[in-house]
């Protein structure tokens, strides 16, 4: 365990805010984290083994630890964000914008800004609006900024000393900052401010500003400018009236986050609300499997939301209020960091009721829909089935690994068993196992002393002197053999064990688990025909709707176990049918057996043959062995 090799260094860490970095053997940064107290936070990793496979992989890979001390948690938050952006550690949550759709970039880092179509948001001093869905809306909106406000579209270096303006000025699509006698830098700056209001969706402010400038131009007898302001005002008002957007007077300026976590990754939907109207929908996502996490408590909504807020507002200004579906980690530090960036107070809150909570729920539903689209509807449906199973069976964790057992026999002949594995809703064929039932366990099927699973009348105690031929004993034997092996190997243990059968088979399975000290594992039986689920903790069976995804998943796993067991049983019977008494004769193999049966027609013909006849076919030594074998049998 490499992390434990750093135990002495961890003990010497300061109890101050800061950032810690984990490195692998190649010197690459594999994880960056922040802490209020570095020693306490990093020391938690020493006991984090076994939380989930991803945590274990991180801790096994760590060979070096560095820390950077800061003056406050807010500084640590900013530094962590910068380091994650620069180094992209593979174990950090890295959320990505939905870059299939374009943004509009207002190049505020230029003296005479332009509006451009951009495919990603950069922290370069520009203002970004979007993404635009569908993509052609971005170019239409860009064209509007030229027509309404005269923003330039050229690539020229503007000095104001051009002799005459280009055609764009003549067709009223540019106010010609290239000719300073037509448009000064201050006048162009006012057009840029109007453009930014338009791109931000602050139409009420824009209409008010345009009306003021129109009246001022008319009073100053600048009628051409007043006409331009009038046309722009009419266009903005028309767009405003045609917008089919959700609106409520109480929502003001705020962003609303929705979240969907799953085994395939996470999707965050952000609704940007300005003046009570939803003006933009932005999607963030990661395709890393992040259900489970790096701390002993696991990765939950709070940590994902904290990462999303940091990365989302790294390149955007934050509104006065941010509504989220759950409390993000380090909420106060995030608020302080955001407030510092925009020079005003920013509040992060979790609405509990009313219209605000309804908006958060709406964002959550959109995130769930986007998750299904992004990660494939089948995979999302499988995750929903696992969530339903967890709820119905009161499991402590999502049943990501399910193992299912089935017995196949015909009147106790050639009894075999199968075990199949399902992980995250997908069958893992490489981990299937098949068993020949030996019938030598000699163990009765009893429940615990305090809580018998079934009445004694419903099971038989098998005779240990005989080959056990009933399903209960066979199930007991195969479960015992399977998990004895798993104990020797140290795992992995399933989150749920499915038994093909009712209460009797389930009792047999629990009896085997209790013998091994694994009674904490959860098993459930599924009975054929009725398709009812039986558990240890309930007297009555659980009946799920026929179309319930959880029941369909259990049935699919059970049917696969049955198919695997039946296939193995048929093969075992075929091998048995091909066996002959001659196989027990010393010196008679498959070739000599075939020769004898072909020559004499049948086993009875071989038995009736004389020594001379046998010796002529297989030699005198084998002939004597065949005669001695049959003489010893009645």
Structure overview:
There is one protein chain. The chain is of the alpha+beta class and 634 residues long. The protein has 20 helices and 19 strands. Strands 13, 14, 15, 16, 17, 18 and 19 form a seven-stranded mixed sheet that branches. Helix 8 (203-219) packs antiparallel against helix 9 and helix 14 runs parallel beside helix 15.
Give keywords.
6-stranded mixed β-sheet; alpha+beta; 42% helix; single chain; 634 residues; elongated; 7-stranded mixed β-sheet
Task: Report a brief summary of the structure.
This protein has 634 residues and is an alpha+beta fold.
Q: Topology, pairings included?
A:
Elements: H1 7-11, E1 18-23, E2 29-35, H2 38-43, H3 53-61, E3 64-69, H4 73-87, E4 96-97, E5 103-106, E6 115-118, E7 127-129, H5 136-149, H6 167-170, H7 185-200, H8 203-219, H9 223-242, E8 254-262, E9 265-274, E10 277-286, H10 301-312, E11 321-323, H11 331-342, E12 347-349, H12 354-375, H13 377-392, E13 401-410, E14 413-423, E15 426-427, E16 433-436, H14 471-489, E17 496-500, H15 503-515, E18 523-526, E19 533-534, H16 549-578, H17 590-600, H18 603-608, H19 611-618, H20 620-631
Parallel strand pairs: 8-11, 11-12, 13-17, 17-18
Antiparallel strand pairs: 1-2, 1-3, 4-10, 5-6, 5-7, 8-9, 9-10, 13-14, 14-15, 14-16, 18-19
Helix pairs in contact: 4-11, 7-8, 8-9, 12-13, 13-16, 14-15, 19-20
